[in-house]
Request: fold
Amino acid sequence: MDDYQFTRSYLLPGEQITWRGHPEKGFFLLPTDIVMIPFGIFWLVFSLFWEYGVIQSGVTFMAIWGLPFLGIGIYLVFGRLIHITYLRGRTQYVITNKKLIIKKGSKITMYDAKDIPPMTLRMHKNGNGTITFSETIHYRRGRHYSNYFALENIKDPVHAQSAISAMQR
Reply:
């Protein structure tokens, strides 16, 4: 069975698939990892010192209290990267002449052509690329909302970018 069969029920009359793909295998970091990895290491080291000190003092309640924080630290350093890698293996991208569909695991997100924010193409050394869509909407009193999503580590990013540019807006 075709991995992209899920799109059939989401296509409108006259809508055609112009490009489809998935993230290529391999490990690469996202811009958010530049902040999250050091923060996770700090959190984990602090939690380990906390647990060590509490266990040495013999206060059982405080040792139990620190376990969730230790678990969060382990997730931030290791679990998050494992989870992202797991999801990349179950991610599919579909570009039609009217919308962009991203399926990550069982979650399907669709972006109508007129609602897609500006895109940026970043080429990787191996020839793959990442197309990033981001926009920040500013409200009154300094509040803002950021919209960010990406087609990560795809094999033919130029063709995907052309398919997005050719969408009916």
